[in-house]
Amino acid sequence: MTTTKEEEDIFEIVDYTTASDWERFIARIEEILSDWKLNGPETSNTEVDFTDGEWIERNEALEFGDRSYTISHFSLQVPESNSTVTTDNNPQMTTSVSIEKQAFVPPRAMADMMSRRNDFPSRSPYLSHWYGLREFLILSPKRNTDPIADESRANILLSSTAIAVSNVGCNVPIFIRVQHEWRNMFIGLCEGSGLRTHFNVCNLKNAPHQYRHLAGLLEIFKSKLGSHIPNDIVIMVAVRFTYVLRDFESTVSRQVLPRDETGMPILTNLPFGSIHDPVSGLHLSCTWPIFSEEVVTENDDCNDFDPLLSQQWAIGVTLLEELPVLLSDAVQEYLNLSTKRETIEQLLGKFQTADEIPNASMNMSDPIKRISDSRTQQYWTSISSSISNTTSRLRVNIFNPPLPPNVVEKTIEYLFNESATVERRRSIVNELPNDTERIRQLKSVPKDSFVYRVVVCFTAICSLPSINRLRSIAHLWFDIVQELRTCWETGKMIPGLESGSPNLSFSKFYQNLQMLNCCIEHRVRHENDSTTTTVDNPIEPDEDGDQFFECSSNISSSKSNLTELQPEGRLKPCGDLKLLNSNEILYVPVTQECPPATEDMLDEQTAILTSLGSGEDATLLRAKMQSRSLLSDMESFKAANPLGTIEDFVRWYSPRDWIETEEVDADGNIQKHYSLSPRMQLPDNLWVEVWQQARPIPVRRQKRLFDDGKEAEKILQKLSSLSPGEILEQLIPVLLHTVYDRIAKEIEEMEESNAIAFLETLNAKEVLIVKGREERKKKLQQDFIICLTSVEQYICRFKSFKEKLFSPDLNHKEKEEMIKVVTELHTRPEIPVKAAAHGRLGKRLASLFTKTKPTTNQANSDSTEVKNQFMTPAGKEYILRASIARPSNLRSRQSPQRIISSLQNFLTGSTRKRPAFINTDKENLPLTVDSEIPTKQSRVALGSALIDNNLFNSIPYSPPEDFIIKAVDPWSPIEPDQIHLTPAHDRRASNRSETRYKNGSFRQVLKWVRSLGQYGDGNNAFREPNSVAWLECGKLAVVDTNAHCIKVFDSETGHFEYSFGRGRTIGCQNLLYPYRIAVVPGGDDQLVVIQRHPRPQIHVFSAKGEFIRRFGQHLEKPRALTVDQSRRIIVIESQLQKLHIFSLEGKILSLFNLSEQLQFPTSICSNNHEIFISDNHLHSIKVFSYNGQLLREIKEANYITYPTNIKLNSLGQLITIDNHQGLNITVYDDYQQKKRLGAYTARICHSQILDVAIQPKQNILHLASKDYRVYTYQLPL
């Protein structure tokens, strides 16, 4: 009794003033709507065109209990000039009359749903495409792993949003995303003006036959409206049929690398275009915009929708995303190779020295000194012999030349073609001012010059596949230098260069070759002059062997001797001038030409003169160094005018320093006085000193100012010493020039005026690269590559459009219209076709979409006629509208009702897609989904198509035939951490073998035994399963990179055991982005884990996850690793192609650079004697010894395509895995892998396979896939 009394006295107070989670959730929605200024009625019914606007999205996060959500606002921003037509003034609106009769203004969403202006928008979100809305809200789970999968949760969210929009007065429709995101299932509502509109979506996997046409859809719509429909109600219909031309690719649009008749590459043209057709598909949409249900009929027996009679046509194309283009890829490779610094000797072989050549007659360690030595024999004989000996001693023995000899021979012939000589273009400024200015800005070279062609050849090499490109460039450059040396030896001019002295407005590389040509020209001219002089007036060389020599010391400059000297080297009289000390005529002497100089030579001279300092002695020394030409001219003047003085020389050489003055004497006569300028009268004047040193020596006996032999050898030595990377770097401005010219040529062939803007953009970016700061050049080059890629892709697509859509007999006006159409196809998903089927483009399209069908003549059964028939539509869309009063005709206000149905690929063989019925009405209609309907079409296909806003370009994805996918009830809960396995039916024999012909090979079809994991953060989920390894204790270790840990499971049951690496590792730092894992053989199951960027290194753990050691901090790009039976850790790096071999203790045993043998290594394994490395780009498996020597290459067409993983089983058999159009497995024997033991493929199309582990004795494979699962396969070996 006491206990009962105490219980009666206990009472509890409930505080109802505390806000619950639900109330806070509603308040948060109201706050967001108010911040977005959506808390007022939208009364504007102005119509807009969806194609003219831009969709803006903004998001906010909110919480409801322990779940996170995101609310998104989508709105169309349209320029005000395009918003001129209103609903009230538009006679085509079906609801305008009804709305005027009802004295109220409907929400803008209702007007949008009833407007026909944007029935089938080509570019808009899917909800806008379905309902014609210009503004809406979506409430969805923040994480894809937490879908709204039960009805009660969806109803709570819908009720909460209804309360929130009602409280703030928001008229914008709001939707709740239900089920998984890929299903695109929504429920929603819109409130305003006393009406509530409900939005519902229903996806069916298999469309009932009676609902595949308009008649059946009208029945559905009327049944949804209710049984009491007025007889005078008119249902307005809009229909759109879409026809897809999938075989739209053309071999003409594909570009291939140029090759000659023997199949060898041609290096004389820049590559351009793509090896793939950039336009792979074309779809045509025929629209019947508005009509009542009585006007047309479509049922099983009759179809009034003839596409040729449709007045609205629109076309769209399927473009190949990430289109690879040849020129951009070649330029990118060129820029990458320009940073390399391997020398020609390192790439091709070592030079042979003089000691290695028997009977060497002279030491050629310094050929320049040997050539310029004053004690050589006759000048030309010494040069020829010296250079010939030098050339023979600098030959390189090229082992395994990268380029075939005939390719190099043809390329050299192209470069040194004598017809390519470039005349010095004085008039180019007047003829091509823009080109001249561009060349000067880039400091490039003339078009089609020798250097221009060299860059074209180098760029063509950069586009060649499956070769060592840097080594090939070194090979070609070595042969070019050898040919240049031959030109110098034989006196043959280098073709493709401007004549004359070096042009400083061109590149330094070009100037050096011009200087070499000047040397050749001087040599030939002096050799001819020497021959003539020897015949007419033989001159004995002096004891030093120089044909031009200084005057001997016994020559006196006294006056008596000068009068006895005979004048020599006179060119012509110098006007009326006479010598001051005599009445003889002053003659202009024959002088030596001014030595030509390149920009490098001038810079070198400037540096030397600057280094002398700023004192008086330094100034005098600089003046003397610069007086060689002055001394030569004074000696020539004295030889031509023996009685001349320094005043006479100044009168001829520098008239401005000879001053004439006039004075009036006492008698009034004008007296003229002459004198030297003040600077000439300064003490210690350099000119006076030089004049005193000068002897009367004619030019033919003077020492040369320009030593062509020495300068030529300096240039040849410089060109020989450059590394290929340095050559490419110096020629980058010329590369930009060649790229510009090639793009300009392609744009000229396009005949499209708007494409000229591409050239201006490219030129601006090229100038930035040349004139930009060194630290920004890499970024500027990358921006240029991006721009060049987009331009090249645009041109490729334009040419593909032109080849497929242009008729050969177009006139000028029609061609301009077609060019405009093609231009719009690049930027818009769909464009209208003018005049539909009756226009020029429409007729061309009708011929493409028409197929021939043979028919039998009833009068004569033996005769057969051919009838053209439009192909079957790949998709149908229907929009049905009505404005009725619901639920009561008498009391209810008329409100808009709308349903849209989208049927896709309903007649394409056995593949069946779900039609989508999307309806909006005033009452809350439940979602309905078919159940227990077997199908061979995955639900993913529809969802992907709708997300991409393209209903007809998705590729059907077929699940395994051994499984039946059942429809999931839309409100059935799905636990995210569960692993769902659907077993095969017992009626299918498990041992039945099926074979498919795939990619040119026959493969046995396999099905996976079990799968493990999904996306998420749980123990049974992964964020990025990059690698997997099987432990001998029966466990499976999976590397979860983005979770920074290793998860260990039971390999038989899939039960989670433990994890380590992130916060659970004893004695070391946490793992950061673990990438690959391997097991140490020997029974203790030690695990070797390698990390990727930003901190690549190797960690060793015990099987329980206990840290042992870490090493390998010098690694840069680790790609794969393995551990052999001797417990050696073998790592291969991508991009660098370096092979590292470590001991288990971390000691570096070997390091090899395999850049010449590999391009893109993907996986590695070892049998303890040989190392196997798969190369994805070379389509092969390379086998190396432990000394880094390439032993053999395993290649087989159609079976080893793009290998990603390789493994060895316990018998030593090689198992290769690739992802080329699905999972492919090929097994080879254990003896040099020459025999194929089996080829297999998966029944399902897996995502990318990231890594593979093998149970070697059982031949069981565990595959880590990019869809966050680990699949297990049993190989039938």
Automatic annotation (TrEMBL):
Localization terms from the record: Cytoplasm; Endoplasmic reticulum; Golgi apparatus, cis-Golgi network
Main location: cytoplasm
Keywords carried by this UniProt record: Cytoplasm, Endoplasmic reticulum, Golgi apparatus, GTPase activation, Repeat
All copies of domain Rab3GAP catalytic subunit C-terminal, residue ranges: 760-904
NHL repeats: 1009-1052, 1157-1187
Top-level taxon in the UniProt lineage: Eukaryota
Keyword Heme in annotation: no
Pfam families listed in its UniProt record: Rab3-GAP_cat_C, Rab3-GTPase_cat
Domain Rab3GAP catalytic subunit conserved, residue spans: 565-719
Alphabetized Gene3D superfamilies for the sequence: TolB, C-terminal domain
GO function terms (MF aspect): GTPase activator activity
Keyword Endoplasmic reticulum: yes
GO terms under cellular component: endoplasmic reticulum; Golgi apparatus
Family assignment from sequence similarity: Belongs to the Rab3-GAP catalytic subunit family.
The name this protein goes by in its record: Rab3 GTPase-activating protein catalytic subunit
Organism from which the protein derives: Rotaria socialis
